[in-house]
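for the record, two folds in this file. i put them one after another cuz i was lazy. first one right below, seq on top, structure tokens after. the second one comes after a little note so u can tell where it starts
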Amino acid sequence: MQSDNDAPGYCIWGVDNVVYGPVDLPTLVNWVQEERVTADTWIHLQEKDDWLKAGRIAELRMFFQPRSAAGVPAPTISAPDGTSMTLKPGALRRVRILAGFSDRQLERFVDFMELHPVRQWTEIVKQGSPGDAMYLVLEGEVRVRMVIAGKETILVTMAPGEFFGEVALFDHGPRSADVVANKESLLLKISAGAFQKLINEAPDLAAPFLYAIGQTLIARIRADNKRYRDSIAFARTVQP
């Protein structure tokens, strides 16, 4: 009899180019049902040491068959120009800080967000300008940069699933860096006003949202501290 430890494992290639797992089959099925994993998501089958798209894996194929719409309707998000887009809950959950939200929570949460499509090379945020919103990267890629003495220094590149500008929701202070779209991108914008409305009208949504932001910020601080320690250690090793 095969033990739980010997059960086949699966690793998932996320939209943010990070490999998640290994996870067991029930967990993977749950992610498929929540639409975090689509038919085109690459999955590594540890038992066979092979990468396949989820739609081609026998155990998952049944979950990608066409079926009639049921349950909670997909939420619709509007842009300032009046255009709108219907987004499946799974697409929204690929943003890490929304991953734990239920379909019903996401349906309510989109009322506090707006769609923000940007063209390639668009400057989304300008250093020194007043901060009035945070952004979630749904599609595309952006870079956070500082221009010093006419030269650009890239601080970080952000892929789908990540977010930036969150500090503006708390202090409305000046932006600390530029953010530019490396390619045509689709963002979700939460203005400071909408954030305050979220807190006042839907505290049951604000609490998990703030907790998820806090977890991510802590992870970033830990990573920055490690880089700082490593740089000091390296500098000391090369001193004469």
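(here's the note) second protein begins now
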Amino acid sequence: MKITIIGAGNMGSAIARGLAQGNLIKAKDITVSNPSNGKLETLKTAFPDIVTTNDNEKAVENADIVILAVKPWLVAKVVPSLKLKCSQIFVSLAAGITTEQLTEYVNPRIPIARMIPNTAIAELSSMTLISTRDMTKEQEQLLLNIFNEMGMTLIIDESKMAAATALTSCGIAYVLKYVQAAMQAGIEMGITQKESMTMVAQSLEGAAKILLNNNTHPSIEIDKVTTPGGLTIKGINELEHNGFTSAIIKAIKASL
């Protein structure tokens, strides 16, 4: 199984790093193409077996899966020049470009997937969203198997992609913003920046595992730590008095 990534920007490089750390795809079977060499050299230093090139057409020649990781406004320029074959799976990361629009640039018979990971894919912890067009169940399962090695992957209806992207791809920034704010509070109370970050990040990981491993609801887990007259309920109420829930909802809806 050979995978080619077109574009070595933040997300393209993150996917290459994540793939190289998994068990299904060998680093030597990953090719990354980019017009300039700086990011390719950085990637090559970390994973010497990854193949790098400046030639997009050559990069996709023998690929089983081609992942497009370029900015949306470059899609119309880059994709037609790839000369993709119907035997290949074409995966696009271009935000806002639908699978229907992608058929304008490739043979309509080519299996197409639209994919939205988040930057945690480099740490094998992404929430990756996939919607597909003209793809068999076996091909969908192949993508799930590959990207589940880099976190959790869901195949969703394309009509839900924008909303789901706000929750996951944009949402990771909102989570990090909470961590940053909590760190600032910790520093003000006399805890070092590094210690604050470690404490908050570990608490965040613990909260995520509680939800994912127990299929529970946040309100149930919050109730467990908000004892009558306790410290936690005072903090929770202060968050609500200052519009915390409303701010989160508005931020996510603004990302549509």
